[in-house]
Design goal:
Elements lengths: L11 H27 L1 H8 L7 H33 L1 H19 L5 H4 L2 H17 L2 H11 L6 H29 L2 H8 L1 H5 L1 H13 L5 H9 L8 H35 L5 H29 L1 H24 L5 H19 L2 H6 L4 H19 L3 H12 L4 H18 L4
Helix pairs in contact: 1-4, 1-7, 1-8, 1-11, 2-3, 3-4, 3-6, 3-7, 3-18, 3-19, 4-6, 4-7, 4-11, 7-8, 7-18, 8-14, 13-14, 13-16, 13-18, 13-19, 13-20, 14-15, 14-16, 15-16, 15-20
């Protein structure tokens, strides 16, 4: 069943403020997750280097910490989702961005394994888990905010800004890491330079707090409150079915997005022996393709439907993933062709991510939207994004098969294709 989000009389200023305030938290969230992924090899050396173990083992432990943070997101989605569906989007999103910023900045202050031994990876993992917990409350609230404030006929476009700020966060993260890699000697980047991107989350968080403090509550939530709160368990079975369907529809988006946009640098370095800077350049191109496709895809979904756009994109990803990966593996291929390949891969994911937020928002009624959106998104990302690096790196280590990323992306996209083609719960 699809739920319409009632259009109300809004000024252009209200809609724009909601768009910016909703987007800024997503930017910080994915900036940090991107930075952690792009610095995975450096973080592995500082926190997860175990005596007698290979560098690949340290990288796997780094991704294990990455995965744990993602598995805390569903808990955050439940906790903050229930709060947001009961007391409002605005106060919940304010709390989320403050807590998320503190946890992110704290990572930049942690002592390394060389300083305090095994306590270092434990503290890092704890901060990552807290960051994941708080970030779990961001997506559901931000997308609820943006789609509930969207003008009539522009819900796909407004929801696409969530994905667009994800791309901006990832691009900012990779751009900053690339700049540091260029300006600093490898020893400086390893010793202290890696801390800078995490500490920069603090001023970003202050800007986000200022924007959200000046925000209005959404018209849809006000309307629900005025009519009398609907019990959250009133449609429990229907909500669970919608969450399960939402996870199925997001699998390919989650797996493909993280494989192409975040895991790619480590894959290129450890499996294809690219330099750190080469891997970052390739990731920038993938994220540029991702960013360029998102907003047009969101606008197109307002005209022809969310599922049609996403089904077409999933089909393209399934058809092109193996050829694109083989092109990257081919030592005879030119750098230009490889750059085009990663650009296309990122753009295909962007076409999925554009209509995705609005599609999910329309699967839930107002009184469970924050929770339902957050759980669908966080559970899908916990399994298929958070574990992407761990699964891909582990399987390559065990099998030696460099096509593992392609198998992973194609398998998840096939499931999403079937879920998108089926009827809604």
């Amino acid at each position: 069943m699809a739920y319409d989000i009632p259009a109300t009389s809004l000024t252009a200023g209200q809609s724009r403020r909601a768009l910016v305030a909703g987007s800024v938290g997503n930017f910080i969230e994915w900036y940090e997750f991107g930075v952690y992924g792009y610095l995975a090899t450096v973080i592995a050396g500082n926190f997860f280097t175990l005596e007698g173990q290979s560098g690949l083992t340290g990288l796997m432990l780094t991704y294990a910490s990455f995965a744990l943070a993602f598995f805390c997101r569903p808990i955050g989605a439940i906790v903050f989702g229930r709060i947001g569906d009961r007391i409002g989007r605005k106060p919940t999103l304010i709390a989320v961005v403050v807590l998320m910023t503190i946890a992110t900045a704290a990572i930049g202050l942690l002592p390394t394994y060389a300083s305090i031994g095994v306590a270092a990876p434990l503290l890092l993992t704890l901060m990552r888990m807290l960051q994941g917990l708080f970030a779990g409350g961001e997506f559901g609230g931000a997308v609820s905010l943006m789609t509930e404030f969207a003008p009539k006929g522009k819900r796909g476009l407004y929801g696409a800004w969530q994905s667009f700020t994800v791309s901006l966060g990832l691009l900012t993260g990779v751009g900053l890491v690339a700049l540091l890699a260029h300006l600093l000697a490898p020893e400086q980047l390893t010793q202290w330079g890696w801390r800078i991107p995490f500490l920069l989350a603090l001023p970003m968080g202050l800007v986000a707090l200022w924007l959200r403090l000046s925000l209005d509550e959404t018209p849809a939530f006000k309307e629900t409150q005025a009519e009398g709160a609907v019990p959250l368990n009133a449609s429990f079975g229907e909500t669970i079915k919608a969450i399960a369907l939402g996870i199925g529809r997001m699998m390919g988006w989650s797996a493909g997005g993280y494989t192409f946009l975040v895991v790619m640098p480590s894959y290129l370095q450890t499996s294809l022996h690219a330099t750190f800077l080469q891997a970052l350049v390739a990731t920038v191109l993938a994220n540029v393709g991702f960013a360029l496709a998102i907003l047009p895809a969101g606008m197109l979904s307002d005209k022809i439907g969310r599922e049609r756009v996403m089904i077409a994109a999933m089909g393209v990803i399934i058809l092109l993933t193996f050829p694109l990966l083989h092109l990257l593996q081919d030592a005879q291929s030119s750098l230009l062709l490889k750059g085009i390949a990663v650009l296309i891969a990122g753009a295909a994911i962007g076409v999925v991510a554009g209509p995705g937020p609005a599609m999910l928002a329309e699967m839930f009624p107002t009184h469970t939207r924050y929770t339902g959106l957050g759980l669908s998104y966080s559970l899908s990302n916990a399994v298929f994004s958070g574990c992407a690096g761990l699964i891909i790196t582990g399987l390559i280590k065990e099998t030696g098969n460099l096509d593992i990323p392609a198998y992973y992306v194609v398998a998840t996209c096939v499931v999403s294709l079937l879920a998108l083609g089926g009827r809604r719960a």
